[in-house]
Q: What sequence folds into this?
């Protein structure tokens, strides 16, 4: 049986956004940027496998030619044929060094399982939905063993571990994108990291040159820019949802694209395809993060509080003025009532109504006393 290999990550072809073709990667360039590539174990000449499905056991070996490992799909097809599981959905797990039962769901953890082959790789084949680990999580046996070891040293009340949460088991997942440097880039920009993890999946977008409008100290100017022209269906860029058509490309892995040609930007993206960090200005600004909304809310609240304080201060001043006017009128009334002179009282009609009414009342009372 012939086995096919994906090869080392440095030999993978990369997708050229400008030409739509695959270009061979470079081994010398961008060695620091390829930090997300999986580490490949040193493969033996052949791999001894012992698999178990229900009460059925199978022993077989897999030959490795030219130090190339088989893919997970081909290995799964081989197991499916040995145990006659063509019409049965099943899961494949292996026993690690620590005794945990870990799943094999993709090429990465399949290569990782080679480290546990000392000298035999022990597999457990189960129907989907019937395994304890698939329901409660893989690696729980190690936690239980640690708890038992601690319970022997520390006397505690024995309690049965409760596992009441039924969490689904994702079969194949990994980080493919992320928004980074949110506090550094401007609000209208977005810095996106695309991770290929050594796979041959294309980046999945095309770029074009165009005209961009920038505000400079000399005024508004039109300059040449790089834009995303199309997204490939099923590609990496479309699956992330972070890039869109007509987004302007500003930087590629920290290098500004202003003043560079379309071919130069394409080469930059191809060289950094395994760990591409692209800064864009989204054409649709509705989906950008509005970091200033909290400050605007605080400004509004501060303005409303200031307004309330001013209104309260004005009302206090009015109240003090009214109280002061009333106290002045009462003081005048007391002076008029204590005065025994026969001088005429002059009423000033330019005063407030309250003062006038009080003065007229005092004048009427004084007139009655004189009579």
A:
């Amino acid at each position: 049986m012939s086995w096919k290999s994906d090869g080392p990550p440095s030999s993978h072809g990369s997708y050229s956004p400008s030409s739509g073709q695959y270009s061979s990667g470079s081994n010398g360039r961008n060695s620091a940027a390829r930090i997300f590539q999986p580490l490949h174990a040193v493969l033996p000449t052949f791999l001894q496998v012992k698999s178990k499905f229900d009460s059925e056991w199978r022993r077989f070996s897999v030959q490795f030619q030219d130090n190339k490992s088989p893919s997970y799909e081909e290995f799964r097809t081989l197991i499916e044929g040995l145990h006659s599981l063509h019409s049965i959905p099943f899961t494949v797990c292996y026993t690690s060094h620590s005794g945990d039962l870990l799943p094999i769901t993709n090429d990465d953890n399949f290569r990782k399982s080679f480290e546990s082959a000392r000298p035999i790789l022990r597999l457990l084949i189960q129907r989907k939905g019937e395994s304890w680990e698939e329901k409660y999580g893989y690696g729980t046996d190690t936690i239980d063993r640690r708890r038992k070891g601690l319970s022997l040293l520390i006397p505690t009340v024995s309690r049965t571990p409760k596992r009441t949460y039924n969490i689904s088991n994702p079969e194949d997942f990994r980080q493919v994108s992320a928004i980074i440097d949110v506090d550094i880039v401007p609000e209208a920009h977005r810095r996106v990291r695309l991770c290929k993890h050594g796979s041959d999946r294309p980046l999945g977008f095309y770029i074009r040159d165009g005209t961009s409008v920038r505000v400079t100290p000399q005024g508004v100017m039109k300059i040449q820019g790089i834009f995303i022209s199309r997204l490939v269906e099923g590609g990496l860029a479309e699956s992330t949802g972070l890039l869109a058509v007509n987004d302007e490309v500003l930087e590629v892995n920290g290098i500004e694209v202003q003043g560079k040609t379309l071919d130069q930007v394409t080469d930059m993206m191809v060289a950094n395809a395994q760990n591409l960090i692209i800064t864009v200005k989204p054409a649709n600004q509705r989906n950008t993060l509005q970091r200033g909304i909290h400050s605007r809310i605080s400004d509004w609240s501060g303005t409303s509080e200031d307004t309330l304080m001013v209104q309260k201060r004005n009302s206090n001043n009015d109240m003090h003025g009214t109280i002061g006017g009333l106290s002045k009128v009462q003081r005048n009334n007391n002076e008029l009532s204590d005065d025994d002179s026969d001088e005429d009282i002059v009423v000033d009609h330019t005063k407030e109504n309250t003062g006038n009414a009080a003065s007229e009342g005092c004048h009427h009372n004084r007139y009655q006393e004189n009579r």
Notes: The helical segments are 72-82, 107-112, 132-136, 140-153, 236-240, 262-271, 293-338, 353-370. Residues 63 and 351 are 114 Å apart (CA to CA). The first strand starts at residue 13 and ends at 15.
